[in-house]
Design a protein that fits this description.
- The chain contains 11 helices and 9 strands.
- It has 297 residues and is α/β, with parallel strands linked by helices.
- It has 2 domains: 191 residues, Rossmann fold; 92 residues, Pantoate-beta-alanine ligase, C-terminal domain (Pantoate--beta-alanine Ligase, Chain: A,domain 2, 2-Layer Sandwich), CATH 3.30.1300.
- The strands form 2 sheets. A 6-stranded parallel β-sheet has the order 1-4-3-2-5-6, sandwiched between helices. Strands 7-8-9 form a 3-stranded antiparallel β-sheet, covered by helices on one side.
- Helix 8 crosses helix 9 and helix 10 packs antiparallel against helix 11.
- The longest helix is centred in the last third of the chain and has 20 residues.
- The N and C termini lie far apart (47 Å).
- The structure holds pantoate.
- Pantoate binds next to strand 2 and helix 8.
């Protein structure tokens, strides 16, 4: 286990092997400490920081994983372009009190076979819509890495952002209802709200790839979603009419192109014809950058 002092992290440790991570965790558990886990792919922003702060507050020990998981990318270019900056991430994490950062290489995380095998988990259809439809295999990769992290860290609580609402629904399903139930003890999944800039733009690591002009254009996404809360209250508004109005409004903004906007039930993620318990999930291309956001009705 290596102690990094060059980020002024006399306190936080960066671990790069599964063995070191398991030893560190075992030691904490023997001392009766509770562990909170925040899985990330790095390029951290204040949205991640809010998860880490919460994990630090709720638990004796906070472990943050920083791993750009290759098995959840169905697009090689997207994987290659995913922003990476471990030094900046480590500085942020140590400043907010994380105890361990787990930053393995893909080879450390997976065997060659695991890297090339398509895992197929059963998500009761939650993976067949929206992101799952657009990015085949994506959620299998997410669950592959998240379940491995749960196994290695054995956390009491794990923290995920609601910006990736479908991912969160699938992780809840995996922990509560799938054949893996029981495997993770009393693990509690903690849903954390979307963090937005003052302008309304949802924080995302992908925002780093936006030019200043594109960032301005991207504001049209959250503005339209917020406006749709009012549209839903208008006389005669239906889910279908609001859905279409959101798509048309965003597409009318030069530089934005909607991939999908679906208003679905928050539990089943299936299309709904009522705004009760509904969430609208959108994916929009802003130039070459694919952004996601959502709004609860
Ligand atoms: O949300 C993410 O950043 C990733 O999908 C996760 C959960 C860290 C798994 O790689």
């Amino acid at each position: 286990m290596k102690k990094y002092t060059h980020f002024n992290t006399s306190y936080m440790q960066i671990l790069t092997t599964k063995k070191d991570l398991q030893q560190a965790v075992q030691h904490c558990k023997q001392e009766g400490k509770t562990i909170g886990l925040v899985p990330t792919m790095g390029a951290l922003h204040q949205g991640h920081a809010s998860l880490v702060r919460r994990a630090v507050e709720d638990n004796d020990i906070c472990v943050v994983s920083v791993f750009v998981n290759p098995t959840q990318f169905n697009n090689k270019e997207d994987l290659a372009k995913y922003p990476r900056n471990i030094e900046r991430d480590a500085a942020l994490l140590s400043s907010i009190g994380a105890h361990y950062v787990f930053a393995p290489t893909p080879e450390e995380m997976y065997s060659a076979e695991e890297m090339n095998t398509t895992f197929a988990f059963d998500f009761a259809g939650l993976d067949k819509v929206m992101e799952g439809k657009m990015r085949p295999g994506h959620f299998n990769g997410v669950v592959q890495v998240v379940s491995r992290l749960f196994y290695l860290v054995q956390p009491d609580k794990a923290y995920f952002g609601e910006k990736d609402f479908q991912q969160l629904a699938i992780i809840h399903h995996m922990v509560e209802r799938s054949s893996m139930a029981g495997t993770f003890g009393n693990l509690q999944i903690i849903d954390c709200p979307i963090v937005r800039e003052d302008s309304g733009l949802a924080l995302s690591s992908r925002n780093e790839r936006l030019s200043a002009a594109e960032k301005e254009t991207a504001l049209g996404i959250s503005k339209t979603l917020f406006a749709s809360l009012e549209w839903a209250k208008e006389a005669g508004a239906t889910v279908a009419s609001v859905q279409q109005r959101v798509i048309d409004t965003i597409n009318a903004i030069e530089g934005l192109e909607v991939e999908y906007y679906e208003i679905v039930d928050r539990t089943t993620l299936l299309p709904t014809d009522t705004f009760d318990h509904a969430i609208g999930c959108v994916t929009v291309y802003c130039g070459p950058v694919r952004l996601i956001d959502n709004i609860k009705y």
